[in-house]
Amino acid sequence: MIARRRFLQTVGGGALAGAGLSVGLGAGVAPLAATAQVDATADAAKMPRLLVGCCAYSYRQALTHGQMTFEDFIRKAVELRLDGVDMTVYYLKSTDPAYLASLRYLAYANAVPFSGVACGSSMVQATADKRAAVLADIKKWIDVTDQLGASHLRVFAGSLPRGASPSEATGWVVEAMKAACDYAAPKGIRLGMEDHVGVSQNADVCLEVMHRVNSPYAGINLDITHFKPTPAADPYAQIAACLPYATVSHIRPLFDDGTPIDLDRVWQMYANAGHKGYMSIEYEPPPGSEPAETGVPKLVTQVRALCQKYSTV
User: What is the CATH number of domain 45-310?
Assistant: First the structure.
């Protein structure tokens, strides 16, 4: 087992160097032109392509209480001029193939791509039977992702069970991700493990899982808000370290502790890395603050401006 801090310093440090950063608190960002310009002679692999997305989770209150349907959410994407939407499966009224086909058709008819699908399956489970059940659940959602015509599924690692060690939990995640990626690969679907609350909330664990799974169908659903500061790296350094594996990215304006995120700095890192993907808003304001109906459009405007500033599209 690779020591966690050493792993981040070696693997993550290389990723940071590629992003124009140095490991450590207050890492700087390499300068970037105010607006990215398409250069016909440039290497296409290095061109950033950052698209404006939104997670259905942003409208969870309306979706949960029947004030909005997934059909409404797709139409809302047209209204907000989004480049794509992330379908959080908690709000699917059914997994019936006819219903999924109707959503796929409606999205196409409105020129709204599905940037991905997000399930709540957590791979850290204390018993073999529970881990087998979670793998079966992930496979089910891979099939749903395929039926919707999407190419990405978000999964969770999960919280550490009582009595389990971090190394055991990481091994369980690796085992499940390998099997799930083998199932997803023939369908052309990539799995993104979110750096969510639990064992994957630090970049070193995320990178170790990616290294050990070693599959092009394994990635990190990079939520920029969740990383905890460590002596080895601040949240911005951890974001940069994970960028080579980033799939869909979840965007909020605040870190989990309520500290404002320097979104311009984050976009510079993505652009310097030549990232191509959806910057998908996951609106989750503190209690009593602005509701999604008005808060999401404001954040869309901010995200769109950043994508236009730092992207070739």
Answer: 3.20.20.150
